[in-house]
Amino acid sequence: MGISKRNIPVLLLIALVVIVQLITAGTDTSFYLTQLTMTAYYSLVIIGLCLLMGYAGQLSLGHAGFFAIGGYVSAALTTHNLIGLRHNQLIELLNKTGLLSMGQDIYGEKILTVIPWAACLAAILVTIIIAFAIGKPVLKLKGHYLAMATLGFGIIIFRFAMATEYFGEADGISGVPPFHLLPGLTVSGDFGARISNYYIAWGLVLLGMILSLNLVNSRVGRALRAIHGSEEAAAAMGINASRFKLYTFVISAVFAALAGVMLTHYNGGIGPSEASVMKSVRYVAIIAIGGMSSLWGALCMGVILNFMSLRGMFGSYDGAVFGAILVAMMLFAPDGILRLPLLKKLWRKNGPARN
Amino acid sequence: MSLQLFTQYLFSGITYGILYAIVAIGFNIIYNTTGIINFAQGEFVMLGGMCAISLHEYMPLPAAILLAVIITGIIGGLIEIIFIRWLDSPSVLRMIIITIGLSILIREAALFVWGESVRSLPYFNGDAVTSVQIFGANISPQVLWVIGVCSVIVVGLSLFFQFTYAGREMRACAANRTAATLCGINTRSKITWSFMLSAGIGAVAGCVMSPITYTQYDIGPGLAIKGFTVVILGGLGNSMAAVAAGLLLGIVESFSIIVVPMAYQEVISIAILLIVLFVRPHGLFGSSETACLQDF
Amino acid sequence: MALLEIKNLSRSFGGLQAVSDISFSLVEGMIKAVIGPNGAGKTTLFNLICGNIPLSAGTIRFQGQHIERLKSHQIAALGMSRTFQNIKIFPGMTALENVMVGCHTRSRAGFIAAMLRLPQTFREEREIRRRSLELLELVEIPQTADCEAASLSFGQQRAVELARALAAGPSLLLLDEPAAGLNIYETAELARLITKIKELGVTILLVEHDMSLVMDISDEIVVLDFGRKLAEDIPARIQQNRAVIQVYLGDDEDA
Ligand SMILES: Nc1ncnc2c1ncn2[C@@H]1O[C@H](COP(=O)(O)OP(=O)(O)O)[C@@H](O)[C@H]1O
Ligand SMILES: [Mg+2]
C-alpha cells in the first residue's frame, strides 16, 4: 500500500509503543508495562465501542457486559474441572479432538479443562450470539430508551456474574491458566513474560485500530455515518440501517469480549466488578471525551485515563474523577476535548484531521 | 400458599412497589417539564435518607425528616441551576451523560461524607419487632407509614397539578414549552421547581423507607433502574399510571421469590423492563399513537 | 410499459386524508411533474412511493413489481432515488463522501471486506470515488469535493443531493421541490441539468412550485389538491384547465 498520509498515525503509534518499552527497559521501570498492558486491553473495548457510538451513533451503557461475557466464559471453561464428566460422550469427543487438556492442580489432583484457544473461540461465539439476540430488539430503540435498555442488559450480566455459583459469585474466577497463543507467545501475568505480553496487547490494539480505521473509511463506514446523520436519507440511498447498526453492535461486542478474554488470562482471573455499570459508564465517558467519532481521540483518552486510573493516581476518588470529567466535558466540550474552542483554533491551523 | 404468607408477600410488594412508583413520579415530573430523564433520581432518595439519619442525631425525627427533604429539594434545584439551566437545547445523549455523571458525583460525595456503612432511621412507631396483625400476617407499622405517606404524596401531587396555579403552569410547560413561554409563564423557574419537587418527594420516600430497606451510599442506581422500569410500564410522563405500574412491579418482584432465588430478583425486574421496551415501548397503558409523537 | 404505476393510493394521518385515491402512471424516459398548493399531499405522495411511510390503501408497481410492502432501502436498491424537500445532507462528511454514500447500492464491500481492505474492496473504492467525482462534475460543483457538505451554500447542497441521488444509477428519480430557494439563474441551470439527466435515460418525477420550470421541462403534469388528483395532462392543456386555474388563482380570475 505504500506510506500514504493515512498510515502515518499508525506508524507513529507503532514507534511510540516500541519507544515506551525501550524507555522502561532503559530506566528499569518495566513495572509500568503491567498497567500499560491492561490499558491496551481496555483500549480495545474503547475502539470497538467508538465504532458503535461515534460512527453508527448508537449509545451502549452495557459494554462492560460484553467484556465480562468474554472474560467469564473463557475463565469458566479453562478452570472448571470436567474430570467427573470424562465418561460423558460429549466430553470424550471433545477430549479426542484435543479441545481439552489434562493437567494437575496444586494438590496433585487430576484436572480436565478446556484449552484456552477453544475457550477463547467459545467466548467469542457466545458473545456474537448474545450480541445478535440483544442487539436486534435493542437497536430499534432510540434516546433514553436505548440508554436504559443497554444499561439494563449490563446490569443483568453483572447480576448473573454475582449470583451464579458457576461464575464464582462475588469472588469471581481465579486460577485461570496462561493462554499459549503461538509457540513462544503466551498471555499470562508471568513476570518473565511481561515484555512479550506488552507487545501482544499492543499488537492487538494496533490490529483493532487498523481494522477499525479501514472500516470507517470504507463503504460501510460511510453508511454508518450516513445513518448517524439521517436514517431516512440513508434508507433512501439503499442503506439497510438496522442491519448496519446490528453488525456494528456485534463487532464492537466482539472487540470487548476479546479484550475480556485476553485480560482475564493476563490477570489470571476475573471478578464481577468488570461487569459493573460503572465500567460501562467509564467506556462511554472516554469516548465522549475523545470526541465521539474519533478513533484516535478515543484511543488517546482511553490510554491516558485508564493508565492513570490503573496506576492509582486518582486514589479513592477514582469514581469521582470520572464523574467530574463526564459532567465537565459534556457541559463545556460536548464535541470532545480536541474540539474545545481554544484547541479548535490550533486544530484548524494544522489542517483538518479526520479520524 | 397460606393466606398469611400471601398477605406478607403482598404487603412487601406494595411497600416496594410504592417506593418504585415515587421514584418513577420523580422521573416523570422532570421529564414532563424538560424532556430529560434524570439518571440521578435514585440519588435523591439516598440523599433524603442519609441527611435525615445524620440530622436525627441533633433533632427529633419529624424535624430531621422535614429538614432532610428541604435540603434535598434545594440540592435538586441547585443541580438544575448550575448544570442544566444554561444549556442551549442539549442533545438527549448529552443530557444522559451529564445526569449519569451527576449521579456518580453525588454518590461519591455521599461515600466521602457517610462512608460505606449501612444506616437507617429508627422505626417511626415501635421497633423492628413491633407488628400489626393483618389476615394473620405480621405487618410492621412502618409499612403502613410508607403506604400512607406515599399515598398522600400521590394524591397531593395530583391535586397540585390539577387545581393550583403553579401546578397548571408546570403542566403547560410540559405540554408545550414555547407556547407556555409565550403565555408569560416563567418556564425557567418552573423547571427549577420541577427539579426541587422531584428531589423533595424522592427524599420523602428515602426517609419513610429507610427503616425497612436501609440506606447506603450506593442504593441510587438500583432504585433508578426500577423506577425507570415503572416509568416505561406506565408510559413515559404518565404519573398516575406509574402508581399502578409501580405496584404491579413491586408485587411481581415480591412473589417472584417463590420461584427465583433472591439473588436474581433484580434480573427479574430488568428483564421486565427489556421485554416491555421491546414489545410495548409506549407502556402498558399508553397508546402507541401518542408514543410515536414523542420524538426521541 | 409504465415504469411506475400507482393505483388508488391513499394515506391518512389520523383524520386527515393527505393522499386519497390517487392513480397515475409514469412512462419510461419522461419527466412528469406533480404540482399543487402547499399541503396538497405531494411530499406525502413521494414518501409513499419510496416506502418512507406505510400506505393506507392502494398499490404501487415499479418496473412491474409490487413495492408497497417493501422497505425504503429495498426500494432504493431496485433503482429509485430521491431528493428531499428540506435538504438532508449528511453532516460531518465532505461533498464527495456524500455522493459516495449514494453509490451504496452499486457496491458490495461488507464489514469483513472493508475491515481487511481486500484488493477488490480497494478497487471498488477507487471506482466509487471516480464515479462520484464525475457526478460532482455533472452537477457542476467539482471544486467542492473536499469541503464539508454542511458548510456549502444552499444551492450547492441541493446539487450535492442531486449528485448523491444520481450516484445510485437510478432508473427513476424523485425530485421534491429542487428549485426551492434557488434564484432565477440557479433555476435556469437546474432546468438544463434536469433535461441533461433525462437524456441520460433517467425517468423523473418532479414536485415543483416554479411554474415556468415545470412548464418548460415536463412532459406531463399531475395536479393535486387536498390529496386528490385534480387533473393530469400535458403542460399546454393544464395551463388551460379551468379547475386548475381556479385552484391556483382562486375565484379572483373571474373578477
Ligand atoms: N407525518 C405526518 N403526520 C401528520 N400529518 C402529516 C404528516 N406529513 C404530512 N402531513 C399532513 O399531510 C398534508 C400533506 O402534506 P405534504 O405532503 O407535506 O404537502 P405538500 O408537500 O404538498 O406541501 C398536510 O396537511 C400535512 O400537514
Ligand atoms: Mg412538500
Structure report:
The complex is a heterotrimer of chains A (355), B (296) and C (255). Chain A is mainly alpha-helical. Chain A is built from 14 helices and six strands. Helices cover 66% and strands 6% of the residues of chain A. In chain A, the strands form three sheets. A two-stranded antiparallel sheet of chain A has the order 1-2. Chain A has a two-stranded antiparallel sheet with strand order 3-6. Chain A has a two-stranded antiparallel sheet with strand order 4-5. In chain A, helix 1 packs antiparallel against helix 7, helix 2 packs parallel to helix 7 and helix 11 packs parallel to helix 13. The two termini of chain A are 19 Å apart. The C terminus of chain A is likely disordered. Chain B has 296 residues and is an all-alpha fold. In chain B, helix 2 packs antiparallel against helix 3. Chain B has one domain: ABC transporter involved in vitamin B12 uptake, BtuC. Chain B has a two-stranded antiparallel ribbon. By secondary structure, chain C is an alpha/beta fold. In chain C, the strands form two sheets. A six-stranded mixed sheet of chain C has the order 6-7-8-3-9-10, with helices on both faces. In chain C, strands 2-1-4-5 form a four-stranded antiparallel sheet, covered by helices on one side. In chain C, strand 4 and strand 5 form a beta hairpin. In chain C, helix 3 packs across helix 5 and helix 3 packs parallel to helix 6. Chains in contact: A-B, A-C. Chains A and B meet through helix 6, helix 11 and helix 13 of A and helix 4, helix 9 and helix 11 of B.
Query: Radius of gyration of chain B, rounded?
Result: 19 Å
User: What would the average pLDDT of chain C be, to the nearest integer?
Assistant: 91
User: Oligomeric state of the chains?
Assistant: heterotrimer
Give the strand tally of chain C.
10
Q: Quick one: CATH superfamily of the largest domain in chain C?
A: P-loop containing nucleotide triphosphate hydrolases
Number of domains of chain C: 2
Instruction: Provide the low-confidence segments of chain B as ranges.
Output: 289-296
Q: What would CATH call the class of the largest domain in chain C?
A: Alpha Beta
Q: Which parts of chain C are unreliable, with pLDDT below 50 for 5 consecutive residues or more?
A: none
Number of strands of chain B: 2
N-to-C terminal Cα separation of chain B, in Å?
45 Å
Examine the coordinates and then state which fold CATH places here, giving the name of the CATH topology of chain B.
ABC transporter involved in vitamin B12 uptake, BtuC
